[in-house]
Amino acid sequence: MEWQTPWRFGIVYVLLSVLVASLHTSSGLSSELASGVSCNNLFQGSWVYDESYPLYDSASCPFVDPEFDCQRYGRPDKMYLKFKWNPNGCELPRFDGRDFLERWRGKKMMFVGDSISFNQWQSLACMLHAAVPNSNITYKKGTPSTITFEEYGVSVMFYRSTYLVDIVSESTGRVLKLDSIQSGSAWLGFDMLIFNTWHWWTHTGKSQPWDYVQDGAKIYKDMDRLVAFNKGLSTWANWVDSNINSTATKVFFQGISPTHYQGADWGEPKATNCYEQKQPLNGSSYPGGPVPAQSVVNSVLSAMSKPVYLLDITLLSQLRKDAHPSKYSGDHPGMDCSHWCLSGLPDTWNQILYAALI
Ligand SMILES: *[C@@H]1O[C@H](CO)[C@@H](O)[C@H](O)[C@H]1NC(C)=O
Ligand SMILES: *[C@@H]1O[C@H](CO)[C@@H](O)[C@H](O)[C@H]1NC(C)=O
Ligand SMILES: *[C@@H]1O[C@H](CO)[C@@H](O)[C@H](O)[C@H]1NC(C)=O
């Protein structure tokens, strides 16, 4: 349990000295954190053109879902594949898929969340596959879906849960239960868990999958969505605090993934989506400013007793107005400026995940 305090990553200032100290207090997982950390903040920086990208060719990855497979579905431009995230004052460690599989030999990790988690899970599977293309890999679809790298005994799984908390069908209709997290029992016993939820909290009308929202004994027709998100996420935080053994399980929270439907946010007031965006924004700041849900995430995580590493990917993703599928999204209808092409931006999220583990 001792590395619990050093590995307190709600804020991402990593003190090398603290990590070195953690070496003396425990073995196993913590030692993996003690090397290679040289960045103060992996989440501040800018995008630079890099000819060596992308990290894999989506055409040779057997896992990519049509909705993310932009090149296959006709995206004409390729420059969006060629950008590397450059944190201020340091270099993001190179992703080494074999090293990742060796470190996680015999272990199980699971992404839990909505289709943005699905996006990141597929990205990681493609990155690992690209490192060991001839190894035996099994892919079992379901809840959870499981991709296993047989020679390493590493399972990389995805459990779909749009809100993390429960939706229950009752006689009155479908109820979003802000203080109930029954599916949590399926998340126990993993070596690493990477959670995410946000996008569905904003859905209204036909795309809202519940009729009522319940908070304690009270049932409402609707609720301010940020307030509801705060309550639901706090339920998740309490679940982690009471159910996770931090010595056995590393917990990450994938921060808020931004959308690009309001051109005013990036200085093109007439744009209503991300179609034909071919380059990231220059520099390290986003004109539209932070997403309000980020402050909910920050406040809930900072009140937790167990260590959770926030993959604070919002700003770096906001700069990537060019990285969405837009209309090149398989048979997904409409203009998708929420998810991300693969290969593409989620590969960077996984590079940062890797950097946090080595
Ligand atoms: C994959 O599995 C098959 C059948 O179990 C085996 O013959 C083959 O050698 C394995 N491949 C590798 C690269 O280990
Ligand atoms: C937590 O996990 C560690 C490592 O698996 C184990 O040694 C320890 O007994 C566990 N603690 C509790 C309270 O279950
Ligand atoms: C961003 O920077 C690149 C390289 O310095 C430059 O070619 C491009 O025109 C810039 N784009 C904008 C929108 O300023």
Beta-sheet strand percentage? 15-25%
Number of helices: 8
How far is it from the N-terminal to the C-terminal residue, by CA? 19 Å
Ligand kinds: 2-acetamido-2-deoxy-beta-D-glucopyranose
Describe the strand arrangement of the main beta sheet, using strand numbers: 4-5-6-3-9-12-13
Biggest sheet, open or closed, and with what strands and sense?
Answer: 7 strands, mixed
Helices and strands: which structural class?
A: alpha/beta
Order of helices and strands: HHEEHEHEEEEEEEEHEHEHH
Helix content class: 10-25%
Q: What is the averaged pLDDT score?
A: 90
Radius of gyration from CA coordinates? 20 Å
Low-confidence residue ranges: 1-37
Total strand segments: 13
Which outline best applies?
globular
Question: What would you say this structure looks like, in words?
Answer:
The protein has 358 residues and is α/β, with parallel strands linked by helices. It contains eight helices and 13 strands. It has helices at 16-25, 29-33, 97-103, 115-131, 225-243, 292-302, 314-318, 345-357; strands at 45-49, 83-87, 108-113, 137-140, 145-149, 154-160, 166-170, 173-177, 192-195, 212-215, 218-220, 250-254, 309-311. The strands form three sheets. The chain has a seven-stranded mixed sheet with strand order 4-5-6-3-9-12-13, covered by helices on one side. α5 (225-243) runs parallel beside α6. It is globular and about 55 Å long. It starts with 15 loop residues before the first helix and ends with a helix. Residues 1-37 have low confidence and may be disordered. The structure holds 2-acetamido-2-deoxy-beta-D-glucopyranose (3 copies). The site of one 2-acetamido-2-deoxy-beta-D-glucopyranose has 3 residues, from loops.
